[in-house]
Specification:
The complex is a heterodimer of chains A (about 375) and B (about 300).
Chain A: H1 3-21, E1 30-37, H2 44-63, E2 71-78, H3 85-96, E3 101-103, H4 108-120, E4 125-127, H5 134-137, E5 142-144, H6 149-163, E6 168-174, H7 178-193, E7 197-204, H8 212-220, E8 225-227, H9 232-244, E9 251-253, H10 260-266, E10 274-277, H11 286-299, H12 305-324, H13 329-337, E11 342-344, E12 347-349, E13 361-367, E14 370-377
Parallel strand pairs in A: 1-2, 1-3, 3-4, 4-5, 6-7, 6-8, 8-9, 9-10
Antiparallel strand pairs in A: 10-13, 11-12, 13-14
Helix pairs in contact in A: 2-12, 3-4, 6-7, 9-10, 12-13
Chain B: H1 2-32, H2 39-57, H3 66-92, H4 100-119, E1 129-130, E2 139-142, E3 145-148, H5 149-171, H6 173-183, H7 185-190, H8 195-221, E4 223-224, H9 228-243, H10 248-266, H11 275-289
Antiparallel strand pairs in B: 1-4, 2-3
Helix pairs in contact in B: 1-5, 1-8, 1-9, 1-10, 2-3, 2-8, 2-9, 3-8, 5-6, 5-8, 6-8, 9-10, 9-11, 10-11
Classes of the chains: A alpha/beta (about 375), B mainly alpha (about 300).
Chain lengths: ~375, ~300
């Protein structure tokens, strides 16, 4: 046989074998739920936390007998915090693995990427923590168990005016993140409505390392505080560099700050600054305390808001499957949409007609190298 | 006025790091007529080497301190030199007599291999790590401008290394051999110069500089991750071309200029996200009007 045709034959047979292994395993004895998260990469702690919360929830549910008499099988895929990956992964989970629902993601940009695919395939998708309003606007199969940025922007604007008592704020946005741009816009709307002044609006590209240029310009306009609605990896460096150029005004931001990594990298530079998030592990409700205990027992660390939301998203899905009595797309979707007064770890909430959760926000401050609960703001 | 001067300071500090890496690019090109795209990743490996070495070195020289810093720098530069030499031996030497395009593609392959391997959990993992403080750092004000001691260290080290390198290339025998190989490698080997040795030496030297750049960058920007070499390496390459590829002071000048332009663009409202684009646009303009770069000289090909 000629070497070229031998090579071709080998490739053809390999391809054939590989495509056979990709067939859906339809054994029907488990309920397959897909999850896509950033388990590695720039926003690794978000993905790891929400995944751990989700995993813990399904473990508990399975131990209690599963749902509709079947165990729930969680298929998790890592999108490495990269754009482009969620589309691949969700396609695979839906078409090859045959999942009945998708859980994910924390970062709005990546949820926005996957949502159209789930909507098209009529597979319900529940995002644990994506706050950009556009995510659920994709279609009626897309849900979330957290508040949205118009609310978060309002919360932070009111916080700036009422608690920080500042009138002039500079905004530093991550131009690569839909979350950041959305949150900045809503903050600005609400802040200026209450006669606040935005001294300067600058942006950076996520993963940039040098922010001194932007910070120097911000310093020049002499604001009273800086609003940084970005992700923790960049915020850490911004805080350090702000300190280096002598910018000593309060910095505050949104739930993108919530990560242990922020404290590790920024150290003393982030001390005393503020951010809003979905809940605080210091909450004394029964649900929160038992969740914190179970999480600590399994993972040996204190959970953060992302973990709590991952946990809640899993339970919301499980409850909906129970109520629907089936895992069929349209019926399951209707059951999820009918979620009312759900008693979650992150509070008691219902999903409104836009499929967003109506919940309170918690404001945390970094004190003594730890996140300390400051106040709750109700919608 | 204050702000403009402050941005200048910021720009010079950023530019110094670009300059250090650009020098490595330009040296390898000068000797081998070859752009080593993996250079930016050697820079990244230097940062990580410093990150992992620092706790070990802290056992003998308590960190942060000058002694500890010198130890970490020296160790990292040696490690990076070895890495550079190994890369040359394994990936480029076997392709010595192949067309330039083949080696170029291999270089890109090496670069991607290093980046993606290092992102794997078994190696460094893809998330950002906090670079440990190596020098006692302090912020101080002078004439209304804020400085950080690290910025001076970076600028100082860049100048010292540039001077040392120029000395090696111009005043030592091995430097003369490097220049000979750069002029005409066939004639150089006829004169008894071992081309292989000189090429390895050049790679080692360039990589040591990239390693130094990695440490200085880690000290300035604290957050290190496996893909950090991509954008910095690309900008350093642009800086090298801007200054005239193959020209050492040109690379340093290109680096500083690029850092300054980028910083000014970054500080302007509405333009700040385009800061990278502006830097590259300037490169295109300079190349249109002065194709050999700012300090480069025309290459005469005798037919």
């Amino acid at each position: 046989m000629k070497p070229e045709s031998l090579l071709l034959a080998t490739f053809a047979s390999l391809f054939g074998i590989l495509s056979l292994t990709g067939c859906k395993s339809g054994d029907g004895s488990t309920i397959k739920v897909g999850e896509f998260a950033s388990l590695t990469g720039k926003e690794k702690t978000f993905g790891m936390s929400s995944h751990e919360g989700t995993e813990l929830a399904f473990e508990e549910i399975n131990k209690a007998g599963g749902v509709l008499g079947k165990q729930i099988e969680l298929l998790t895929e890592d999108n490495q915090s990269k754009a482009g990956e969620p589309a691949n992964i969700v396609n695979k989970l839906i078409s090859r693995d045959g999942v009945v629902a998708i859980l994910g993601e924390v970062a709005s940009s990546r949820s926005l990427e996957a949502a159209p695919i789930a909507q098209e395939a009529k597979i319900p998708m529940i995002s644990p923590a994506s706050t950009n309003p556009k995510v659920t606007e994709v279609g009626d199969y897309i849900f979330r168990v957290c508040f949205i940025d118009p609310f978060q922007g309002t919360v932070m604007a009111n916080f700036a005016i009422n608690t920080l008592k500042v009138k002039k704020v500079a905004i530093l946005t991550d131009a690569k993140s839909d979350y950041s741009k959305g949150l900045a816009k809503y903050f600005k709307e609400q802040f200026t409505k209450n006669s606040g002044v935005i001294t300067s609006e600058l942006d950076y590209n996520g993963s940039d390392k040098d922010f001194k240029a932007q910070l120097t310009t911000i310093k020049g306009a002499a604001p009273d505080a800086v609003f940084i609605p970005g992700y923790y990896t960049d915020v850490a460096l911004i805080a350090i560099q702000a300190q280096e150029i002598g910018l000593s005004i309060p910095l505050f931001g949104g739930d993108g700050w919530e990560s242990e990594n922020l404290l590790q990298v920024a150290g003393k530079a982030i001390e005393g600054h503020y951010f809003s998030t979905h809940c605080s592990p210091e909450d004394t409700s029964l649900k929160m305390t038992s969740f914190v205990a179970a999480y600590k027992a399994k993972y040996n660390k204190t959970p953060d808001a992302m973990a709590a939301l991952g946990y809640d998203s899993a339970y919301v899905l499980a409850e909906a499957i129970k109520r629907a009595g089936t895992t069929e797309g349209p019926k399951l979707r209707d059951a999820i949409a009918a979620t009312k007064d759900f008693e979650g770890v992150t509070g008691k909430f219902s999903l409104n007609e836009k499929r967003d959760a109506v919940k309170s926000a918690a404001i945390l401050q970094i004190k003594d190298g730890k996140f300390k609960f400051l106040e709750t703001i109700a919608p | 006025m204050n702000e403009i001067s402050q941005q200048l300071v910021n720009g010079l500090a950023l530019g110094s790091v670009y300059a250090l890496i650009a020098i490595g690019y330009t040296m390898v090109y000068g000797v081998l007529r070859f752009i080593n795209f993996a250079h930016g990743d050697v820079f990244m490996l230097g940062s990580f080497a410093g990150f992992y070495l620092a706790p070990q070195i802290a056992k003998w020289f308590p960190l942060p301190s000058w002694g500890g810093w010198v130890a970490v720098m020296a160790a990292t530069m040696i490690i990076c030199a070895i890495i550079g030499i190994v890369i040359e031996l394994l990936a480029y030497r076997p392709l010595r007599n192949r067309p330039k395009l083949t080696v170029l593609i291999t270089a890109i392959g090496v670069s991607l291999l290093i980046q993606y391997t290092c992102q794997h959990q078994a190696f460094f993992g893809a998330s950002q790590k906090a670079f440990p403080p190596l020098l006692p750092s302090g912020n101080f004000s002078l004439g209304g401008l804020s400085f950080n001691t690290t910025q001076f260290v970076v600028l100082g080290v860049t100048l010292v290394l540039l001077a040392a390198l120029t000395f090696i290339v111009k005043k030592t025998r091995i430097g003369m051999a490097m220049r000979a190989v750069s002029h005409n490698s066939a004639a150089a080997s006829l004169m008894g110069i071992s081309n292989s040795f000189i090429i390895s030496f050049t790679f080692g030297l360039g990589s040591a500089l990239a390693g130094a750049g990695g440490i200085l960058y880690g000290m300035t920007y604290t957050g290190i991750e496996p893909l950090m070499g991509v954008s910095v390496g690309l900008k350093a390459f642009v800086a090298a071309v801007l200054g005239g590829i193959g020209n050492l002071p040109g690379a340093a000048l290109g680096g500083l200029l690029l850092g300054i332009v980028e910083t000014y663009a970054g500080g302007m409202s509405g333009v700040s996200t385009y800061r990278d684009g502006i830097a590259f646009a300037i490169l295109i303009l300079i190349l249109i009007f002065k194709p050999t770069g700012l300090l480069g000289s025309k290459q005469i090909e005798k037919v």
